[in-house]
Fold:
Amino acid sequence: MIDDNKNFYERLEKQLSESSKWPSLYRFKFIVKSETKNINKLKSIFDDVKNVEISSRTSSNNKFTSFSITATMKSPSIIIKKYKLASKIDGIISL
Structure:
């Protein structure tokens, strides 16, 4: 599984490098369990990014919250770092 993630991140970084000029606007999408600790962890990953727009929507049963996070990112490698940090949140789904 770790090798699969490594290959995924390498492919994503290559695609991002080839498809955009950097810095560039990028939209992250995540789904987390609607627990304060998970939501706070996710938001804190983007504390160091300027001009971040975070929007969220809670599921009808309030068990999950989806996030769209849009920010000007400096490079594909920083995007990959953000995904790796987010992947440490219990039960997170990255879209």
Observations:
- The helical segments are 2-19, 36-44, 76-86.
- The beta strands are 24-33, 53-58, 64-73, 93-94.
